[in-house]
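Q: I'm writing up a methods section and want to include an example of the input and output format. Could you take the sequence below and give the corresponding predicted structure tokens, formatted cleanly so I can copy it straight into the document?
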Amino acid sequence: MAIIWTRELCTEIDEIDQQHERLVDYINQLEGAIKQQNRALVGQVLDELVDYTLSHFAFEESLLEEAGYKLTKPHKAVHEMFVKRVAKYQDKHNDGENIAEQLLGMLGTWLIHHIKRDDMAYVAEVRGSICAIVEDRKEGNWLSRSLGQFFR
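A: Here is the clean output for your methods example:
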């Protein structure tokens, strides 16, 4: 069953919500590939989902660190466990196993629970500073700041 983006999944941090919606889109594309019984498309969507998820996690973790969120390390650990879990599914798929239905169920359940539990936990504490950081990054100031941190 397709995941429907609802208000209860919104963090009210626009960039994070847009990225979460994109993850939902990938999961729904995976469901479509499964319904078509298109193994190659399942693999393609899975690869794209993994790449996008890694990018999203890096973005979110960076914002949490910059905002001074005290539970950034445990949040990052949850992301790392998820990445390892999905990598195992990806390996099994690449080895020819039919894991698509099982993977789809896990992805949908995990994402919804993660947003509602782990992500919503940081919203009240860091929403204001995260929104300011995102706006600052959109204006291009993040590049000079990032390069400054890198070359220190």
